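Here is an idea for our session: we take a single protein and study its fold together. To get us started, please write out a protein record for me. Start from the sequence, derive the backbone structure tokens from it, and show both lines together. Go ahead whenever you are ready, and we will take it from there:
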Amino acid sequence: MSGRQDDALVDRVLGFSGGPVVVVGDLLLDRWITGTADRLSREAPAAVVQVGGRDDVPGGAANTAVNLAALGADVRIVGSIGADEAGDVLVALLRAAGVDTGGVVRLEGLPTTVKTRICVAGQVLLRFDEGRKLTDEEAGAVASRLPAAIADAGAVLVCDYDMGVAGGAVRTALGAVERTAPLVVDAHDLLPWFALHPDAVTPNAGETERLLGRPLGADRVRTATDAAGELHVRTGATGVIVTLDRDGTVVHADGATSRTLAKPAPDANTNGAGDTFAAALTLALASGLDLHGAARFGQLAADVVTRTPGTGVCTAADLVASLRDGARLLDEDTLVAALSAERVTGKRIVFTNGCFDVLHRGHTAYLKQARAQGDILVVAVNDDDSTRRLKGPGRPLNPAADRAGLVAELSCVDYVTVFSTDTPIALIERIEPDVYAKGGDYVPEMLEETAVVEAHGGEVRILDYVSPHSTTDLIARVRAAGVADA
């Protein structure tokens, strides 16, 4: 499978052999209790869960540390847990994963934070949390471990879930040490970290809204993109990466803005994906990548863990294997660079585009034919606004992230990107495809793109028409069936 740029990026990061990555933050134990439920209790209108399995996994900063170790990093962790059974379990899990726990403070009277989820048929029925916020004295004990832990660090990652570990004492200790390694802060509240001027911060959608003092609105990507200056000013960070789950990330760094695209995943599968992203991002920065490349690496790792439910860990082997399975979802700039690398090896680039609102047999037949016209198939998917302009009110039925993600799952597709204009002419001018493929309901003379493709030395090929398979027909049949049933 293609994707030479991602392959090179992953090889570089996984080959990093510099100083240890130090994780500082709130350590949690995630407990998953799974079972079946087919009746209600006699005592109350509540489901009776017949327990079938229990699983303890590191959570919070502990999960981040385990992800780093799974990617091959030398990892130290600094934090606190209780001198209790849950703490014993968590330390054992960290050590088994290869994490250095010398910076973990065991505190009498502090209950280890445990989040227990009850799951039935892949759905979380209930979550209950145990633990409390650290006192200033307890946080001071954690801060005292920092100087020795970060003395030779290749990077420092703070995971601040507002539970007191990464409080004022830790910030003071970090600020007192001359910084030679990248500092990444993943915090619920980034404002207290302003004075340290982190190299990168990773606010999610809710955290970004609090920073800006306003909602992101329906077009979260556009709002996050336009807010670059505000985010830099409010966080004091050199680089800001806004993480938007299903919408990927928006990266502001070095005076430029870029995006990563996420593969769609059920919400139940996204627990811990943020930890994986932060871990992979930090390792990539330690290896010398700029923030835009590091965010791409983080997205690749996060996409791996969202494929399965539970607190996720992305191993180096998982990441390498994922590059051989499925197309790459890339922003425009990254796509252009990737295709340049493909051309160096003599690959013939085929390009096509469409809305792909409801994927059907006509689409898959036409994409297979398109792939046969060359070595690499690139599919550009209209974003929601351009689809609405082209198809009318009520469209698209599915958001761009879902539509692009489904196309990316087809084995005949190599690269997928999302574009916002009504025609892909601007994208064609940058990609310069060898072949522009369109379905049999067109002729070259109908297409505005024909002159642009030919001007760059390419050719337009009209593929077979598969009738009567069209999204419009399919939607009409579904709506007609709904009216008949009513």
In short: The chain has 19 helices and 19 strands. The domain at 332-485 is CATH 3.40.50.620 (Rossmann fold).
